[in-house]
Specification:
By secondary structure, the protein is of the alpha+beta class. It folds into 2 domains: about 160 residues, Regulatory protein AraC (Jelly Rolls); about 100 residues, Arc Repressor Mutant, subunit A (Orthogonal Bundle), CATH 1.10.10.60. The chain is built from 13 helices and 8 strands. It is elongated, with a radius of gyration of 24 Å. The two termini are about 30 Å apart.
Protein backbone atom coordinates (compact mmCIF):
# COMPACT_ATOMS: atom_id res chain seq x y z
CA UNK A 1 0.00 0.00 0.00
CA UNK A 2 3.05 2.27 0.09
CA UNK A 3 2.46 3.83 -3.34
CA UNK A 4 -0.99 5.03 -2.36
CA UNK A 5 0.35 6.50 0.89
CA UNK A 6 2.81 8.47 -1.25
CA UNK A 7 -0.11 9.59 -3.42
CA UNK A 8 -1.94 10.87 -0.34
CA UNK A 9 1.17 12.66 0.92
CA UNK A 10 1.88 14.28 -2.44
CA UNK A 11 -1.73 15.46 -2.78
CA UNK A 12 -1.54 17.02 0.67
CA UNK A 13 1.69 18.80 -0.18
CA UNK A 14 0.27 20.09 -3.48
CA UNK A 15 -2.80 21.52 -1.75
CA UNK A 16 -1.10 22.45 1.51
CA UNK A 17 -1.82 25.88 2.92
CA UNK A 18 0.92 27.15 5.21
CA UNK A 19 0.97 30.05 7.63
CA UNK A 20 4.36 31.13 8.93
CA UNK A 21 4.16 32.33 12.54
CA UNK A 22 7.79 33.13 13.48
CA UNK A 23 11.39 32.67 12.34
CA UNK A 24 14.80 33.55 13.79
CA UNK A 25 18.14 32.15 14.99
CA UNK A 26 18.85 30.94 18.53
CA UNK A 27 21.88 29.88 20.53
CA UNK A 28 21.98 27.51 23.51
CA UNK A 29 24.80 27.99 26.03
CA UNK A 30 26.28 24.75 27.41
CA UNK A 31 26.14 26.25 30.90
CA UNK A 32 22.43 27.00 30.65
CA UNK A 33 19.95 24.76 32.50
CA UNK A 34 18.68 21.84 30.43
CA UNK A 35 15.64 22.68 28.33
CA UNK A 36 12.46 20.98 29.46
CA UNK A 37 10.68 18.64 27.07
CA UNK A 38 7.89 20.67 25.51
CA UNK A 39 5.25 20.18 22.80
CA UNK A 40 4.50 23.15 20.56
CA UNK A 41 1.11 23.95 19.04
CA UNK A 42 2.80 24.66 15.70
CA UNK A 43 5.16 22.79 13.40
CA UNK A 44 8.89 23.56 13.69
CA UNK A 45 11.81 23.42 11.28
CA UNK A 46 15.26 23.55 12.89
CA UNK A 47 18.64 23.78 11.10
CA UNK A 48 21.83 23.53 13.18
CA UNK A 49 24.46 26.07 12.06
CA UNK A 50 27.09 25.72 14.80
CA UNK A 51 28.17 23.50 17.67
CA UNK A 52 26.90 20.08 18.58
CA UNK A 53 24.14 18.78 20.79
CA UNK A 54 21.10 16.55 20.90
CA UNK A 55 17.40 16.59 20.11
CA UNK A 56 15.62 14.72 22.88
CA UNK A 57 12.32 13.05 21.97
CA UNK A 58 10.08 10.83 24.05
CA UNK A 59 11.45 7.57 22.64
CA UNK A 60 14.93 8.47 21.38
CA UNK A 61 17.66 11.08 21.03
CA UNK A 62 18.89 12.50 17.71
CA UNK A 63 22.48 13.86 17.54
CA UNK A 64 22.80 17.43 16.29
CA UNK A 65 25.68 18.87 14.25
CA UNK A 66 26.04 21.63 11.66
CA UNK A 67 23.75 20.78 8.73
CA UNK A 68 21.31 18.70 10.78
CA UNK A 69 17.75 19.68 9.94
CA UNK A 70 14.63 18.57 11.76
CA UNK A 71 10.92 18.93 11.06
CA UNK A 72 8.88 18.52 14.22
CA UNK A 73 5.12 18.24 13.95
CA UNK A 74 2.81 20.12 16.24
CA UNK A 75 2.22 18.24 19.49
CA UNK A 76 5.49 16.25 19.42
CA UNK A 77 7.28 16.66 22.79
CA UNK A 78 10.98 17.50 22.41
CA UNK A 79 13.90 19.44 23.85
CA UNK A 80 17.26 20.72 22.57
CA UNK A 81 20.53 20.61 24.47
CA UNK A 82 24.10 21.68 23.69
CA UNK A 83 27.27 19.67 24.25
CA UNK A 84 29.43 20.85 27.09
CA UNK A 85 32.20 22.05 24.77
CA UNK A 86 30.51 24.84 22.76
CA UNK A 87 27.23 26.66 22.21
CA UNK A 88 24.62 25.15 19.90
CA UNK A 89 23.24 27.58 17.32
CA UNK A 90 20.35 26.91 14.98
CA UNK A 91 18.02 28.70 12.59
CA UNK A 92 14.33 27.94 12.95
CA UNK A 93 10.85 28.75 11.75
CA UNK A 94 7.41 27.92 13.11
CA UNK A 95 4.43 27.35 10.86
CA UNK A 96 0.92 25.99 10.75
CA UNK A 97 -0.26 23.78 7.90
CA UNK A 98 -3.58 22.48 6.63
CA UNK A 99 -2.71 18.79 6.94
CA UNK A 100 -2.94 16.89 10.21
CA UNK A 101 -2.86 13.19 9.32
CA UNK A 102 0.05 12.30 11.61
CA UNK A 103 -0.69 8.61 11.09
CA UNK A 104 0.43 8.88 7.47
CA UNK A 105 3.80 10.33 8.45
CA UNK A 106 4.27 7.62 11.04
CA UNK A 107 3.50 4.91 8.49
CA UNK A 108 5.94 6.38 5.97
CA UNK A 109 8.49 6.94 8.75
CA UNK A 110 9.46 10.36 7.50
CA UNK A 111 12.64 10.99 9.53
CA UNK A 112 12.63 13.45 12.39
CA UNK A 113 16.09 14.70 11.36
CA UNK A 114 18.27 14.59 8.23
CA UNK A 115 21.69 15.98 7.33
CA UNK A 116 22.24 18.66 4.66
CA UNK A 117 25.77 18.68 3.26
CA UNK A 118 26.37 21.37 2.21
CA UNK A 119 23.73 23.23 4.17
CA UNK A 120 24.13 26.73 2.75
CA UNK A 121 20.98 26.51 0.61
CA UNK A 122 18.53 25.60 3.43
CA UNK A 123 20.24 28.19 5.64
CA UNK A 124 19.68 30.84 2.98
CA UNK A 125 16.01 29.86 2.70
CA UNK A 126 15.56 30.23 6.46
CA UNK A 127 17.31 33.61 6.35
CA UNK A 128 14.90 34.77 3.64
CA UNK A 129 11.93 33.51 5.60
CA UNK A 130 13.11 35.36 8.72
CA UNK A 131 13.73 38.57 6.75
CA UNK A 132 10.30 38.51 5.11
CA UNK A 133 8.47 38.00 8.41
CA UNK A 134 9.33 41.60 9.36
CA UNK A 135 8.24 43.06 6.03
CA UNK A 136 4.76 44.26 5.16
CA UNK A 137 5.23 44.16 1.40
CA UNK A 138 2.39 42.87 -0.73
CA UNK A 139 4.37 39.80 -1.82
CA UNK A 140 6.03 38.97 1.52
CA UNK A 141 3.65 36.18 2.51
CA UNK A 142 3.78 34.68 -0.97
CA UNK A 143 7.59 34.62 -0.95
CA UNK A 144 7.70 33.21 2.58
CA UNK A 145 5.37 30.39 1.56
CA UNK A 146 7.43 29.66 -1.55
CA UNK A 147 10.65 29.48 0.47
CA UNK A 148 9.02 27.30 3.14
CA UNK A 149 7.64 24.84 0.58
CA UNK A 150 11.06 24.76 -1.12
CA UNK A 151 12.68 23.90 2.22
CA UNK A 152 10.12 21.16 2.94
CA UNK A 153 10.65 19.79 -0.58
CA UNK A 154 14.42 19.60 -0.09
CA UNK A 155 13.89 17.86 3.23
CA UNK A 156 11.65 15.22 1.67
CA UNK A 157 14.05 14.70 -1.23
CA UNK A 158 16.75 13.72 1.23
CA UNK A 159 14.48 11.51 3.30
CA UNK A 160 14.40 7.75 2.95
CA UNK A 161 10.84 6.50 3.21
CA UNK A 162 10.30 3.07 4.71
CA UNK A 163 6.90 1.47 5.24
CA UNK A 164 6.45 1.43 8.99
CA UNK A 165 4.87 -1.20 11.16
CA UNK A 166 2.02 1.05 12.31
CA UNK A 167 -1.34 -0.59 11.67
CA UNK A 168 -3.39 1.54 9.23
CA UNK A 169 -6.55 3.07 10.63
CA UNK A 170 -10.00 2.32 9.16
CA UNK A 171 -9.83 5.65 7.33
CA UNK A 172 -6.52 4.76 5.67
CA UNK A 173 -7.87 1.36 4.65
CA UNK A 174 -10.95 3.01 3.14
CA UNK A 175 -9.00 5.55 1.09
CA UNK A 176 -6.64 2.80 -0.08
CA UNK A 177 -9.65 0.84 -1.36
CA UNK A 178 -11.00 3.85 -3.22
CA UNK A 179 -7.67 4.83 -4.80
CA UNK A 180 -7.02 1.28 -5.98
CA UNK A 181 -10.50 1.15 -7.57
CA UNK A 182 -9.91 4.47 -9.36
CA UNK A 183 -6.57 3.30 -10.74
CA UNK A 184 -8.12 0.07 -12.02
CA UNK A 185 -11.10 1.80 -13.63
CA UNK A 186 -9.74 5.04 -15.13
CA UNK A 187 -11.17 3.97 -18.50
CA UNK A 188 -14.62 3.41 -17.03
CA UNK A 189 -17.43 5.69 -15.99
CA UNK A 190 -16.96 6.18 -12.24
CA UNK A 191 -19.71 7.62 -10.05
CA UNK A 192 -19.62 9.12 -6.58
CA UNK A 193 -22.20 6.54 -5.48
CA UNK A 194 -19.99 3.74 -6.75
CA UNK A 195 -16.95 4.98 -4.80
CA UNK A 196 -19.00 5.71 -1.68
CA UNK A 197 -20.47 2.20 -1.81
CA UNK A 198 -16.99 0.67 -1.73
CA UNK A 199 -16.44 2.04 1.77
CA UNK A 200 -20.07 2.01 2.95
CA UNK A 201 -20.46 5.77 3.21
CA UNK A 202 -23.27 8.09 2.16
CA UNK A 203 -22.26 9.92 -1.06
CA UNK A 204 -22.43 13.34 0.59
CA UNK A 205 -20.28 12.24 3.51
CA UNK A 206 -17.92 10.39 1.17
CA UNK A 207 -17.08 13.61 -0.67
CA UNK A 208 -16.17 15.28 2.64
CA UNK A 209 -14.17 12.22 3.71
CA UNK A 210 -12.26 12.03 0.41
CA UNK A 211 -11.39 15.72 0.39
CA UNK A 212 -10.21 15.51 3.98
CA UNK A 213 -7.88 12.63 3.13
CA UNK A 214 -6.68 13.75 -0.30
CA UNK A 215 -6.91 17.53 -0.20
CA UNK A 216 -9.17 17.63 -3.27
CA UNK A 217 -12.58 16.37 -4.38
CA UNK A 218 -13.10 12.94 -6.01
CA UNK A 219 -13.85 14.64 -9.35
CA UNK A 220 -10.66 16.67 -9.20
CA UNK A 221 -8.61 13.63 -8.27
CA UNK A 222 -9.97 11.39 -11.04
CA UNK A 223 -9.45 14.10 -13.66
CA UNK A 224 -5.97 14.73 -12.28
CA UNK A 225 -5.07 11.04 -12.55
CA UNK A 226 -6.47 10.86 -16.08
CA UNK A 227 -4.41 13.85 -17.20
CA UNK A 228 -1.28 12.47 -15.51
CA UNK A 229 -1.80 9.14 -17.26
CA UNK A 230 -2.40 10.91 -20.57
CA UNK A 231 0.83 12.90 -20.27
CA UNK A 232 2.78 9.72 -19.54
CA UNK A 233 1.30 7.85 -22.50
CA UNK A 234 1.63 10.74 -24.95
CA UNK A 235 5.36 10.81 -24.22
CA UNK A 236 5.60 7.26 -25.58
CA UNK A 237 5.81 7.08 -29.43
CA UNK A 238 3.60 3.98 -29.69
CA UNK A 239 0.58 5.80 -28.24
CA UNK A 240 -1.43 8.13 -30.48
CA UNK A 241 -4.00 10.66 -29.27
CA UNK A 242 -7.02 8.44 -30.01
CA UNK A 243 -5.52 5.50 -28.10
CA UNK A 244 -4.72 7.69 -25.10
CA UNK A 245 -8.27 9.10 -25.01
CA UNK A 246 -9.66 5.56 -25.09
CA UNK A 247 -7.23 4.44 -22.39
CA UNK A 248 -8.59 6.99 -19.92
CA UNK A 249 -12.21 6.53 -20.95
CA UNK A 250 -12.85 9.86 -22.67
CA UNK A 251 -14.18 10.80 -26.09
CA UNK A 252 -11.41 12.39 -28.09
CA UNK A 253 -12.99 15.85 -28.36
CA UNK A 254 -13.60 16.09 -24.59
CA UNK A 255 -10.15 14.72 -23.93
CA UNK A 256 -8.57 17.33 -26.22
CA UNK A 257 -10.41 20.15 -24.48
CA UNK A 258 -9.58 18.95 -20.99
CA UNK A 259 -5.94 18.22 -21.81
CA UNK A 260 -5.39 21.68 -23.30
CA UNK A 261 -7.09 23.26 -20.30
CA UNK A 262 -4.85 21.21 -18.01
CA UNK A 263 -1.50 21.70 -19.79
CA UNK A 264 -1.95 24.68 -22.11
CA UNK A 265 -1.12 22.42 -25.06
CA UNK A 266 -3.21 20.24 -27.33
CA UNK A 267 -2.50 16.48 -27.04
CA UNK A 268 -0.98 16.34 -30.52
CA UNK A 269 1.35 19.27 -29.79
CA UNK A 270 2.35 17.76 -26.45
CA UNK A 271 3.09 14.46 -28.17
CA UNK A 272 5.27 16.16 -30.81
CA UNK A 273 7.24 18.08 -28.17
CA UNK A 274 7.76 14.89 -26.17
CA UNK A 275 8.97 13.05 -29.28
CA UNK A 276 11.45 15.84 -30.07
CA UNK A 277 12.78 15.91 -26.51
CA UNK A 278 11.74 19.55 -26.05
CA UNK A 279 9.46 19.02 -23.06
CA UNK A 280 11.19 20.02 -19.85
CA UNK A 281 14.47 20.86 -21.60
CA UNK A 282 14.22 24.50 -20.61
CA UNK A 283 16.19 25.45 -23.72
CA UNK A 284 13.22 25.66 -26.03
CA UNK A 285 11.58 28.20 -23.72
CA UNK A 286 7.98 28.34 -22.61
CA UNK A 287 7.28 31.22 -24.99
CA UNK A 288 8.32 29.12 -27.97
CA UNK A 289 6.15 26.25 -26.79
CA UNK A 290 3.15 28.48 -26.17
CA UNK A 291 3.53 30.19 -29.52
CA UNK A 292 3.65 26.84 -31.29
CA UNK A 293 0.55 25.72 -29.44
CA UNK A 294 -1.27 28.92 -30.38
CA UNK A 295 -0.30 28.56 -34.03
CA UNK A 296 -1.55 25.00 -34.07
CA UNK A 297 -5.06 26.13 -33.17
CA UNK A 298 -7.75 23.98 -31.61
CA UNK A 299 -7.21 20.24 -31.46
CA UNK A 300 -9.51 17.80 -33.22
CA UNK A 301 -12.96 18.07 -31.68
CA UNK A 302 -12.32 21.41 -29.97
CA UNK A 303 -14.73 24.28 -30.55
CA UNK A 304 -14.15 28.00 -30.61
CA UNK A 305 -16.30 31.12 -30.66
CA UNK A 306 -20.01 30.42 -30.84
CA UNK A 307 -19.44 26.72 -30.30
CA UNK A 308 -18.36 27.47 -26.69
CA UNK A 309 -21.90 28.58 -25.90
CA UNK A 310 -23.36 25.30 -27.10
CA UNK A 311 -20.67 23.41 -25.22
CA UNK A 312 -21.42 25.12 -21.90
CA UNK A 313 -24.78 23.40 -21.55
CA UNK A 314 -23.17 20.00 -21.94
CA UNK A 315 -20.51 20.96 -19.37
CA UNK A 316 -23.23 21.77 -16.85
CA UNK A 317 -24.82 18.39 -17.38
CA UNK A 318 -21.54 16.68 -16.52
CA UNK A 319 -21.34 18.30 -13.10
CA UNK A 320 -21.85 15.97 -10.09
CA UNK A 321 -25.47 15.07 -9.47
CA UNK A 322 -27.15 13.81 -6.33
CA UNK A 323 -28.00 10.58 -8.13
CA UNK A 324 -25.50 9.01 -10.52
CA UNK A 325 -22.84 11.70 -10.01
CA UNK A 326 -19.99 11.22 -12.43
CA UNK A 327 -16.46 11.75 -11.20
CA UNK A 328 -14.94 12.02 -14.62
CA UNK A 329 -16.46 15.45 -15.17
CA UNK A 330 -16.09 15.44 -18.97
CA UNK A 331 -16.92 11.93 -19.96
CA UNK A 332 -20.57 11.86 -20.98
Amino acid sequence: MTSHYFTILMNHLEHMQVELTAASETGIDPAAPAEEVNAYDCNRILLVTGGRGALRLEDRTEPLAPGTCSILQAGVPHALEADASEPLTYKWCHFRASYAERELYKILRIPTAIRFDPWDEPAALLDRIAAWTSQAALTSRLRMKAALLDLIGQYLERSEFVLGDVTPSPEMIKIETVLRHIEEHLADSITIEELAGLVFLHPNYFIVFFKGMMGCSPIQYVNQRRMETARTLLAQPEWNVSDVAARIGMKIYYFSRMFKSHTGLTPSRYRKLAASGSLGSGLSGSGETEAAAAEEGPAYGERTGADETAESGMARRTAPRRNGSRTEGADE
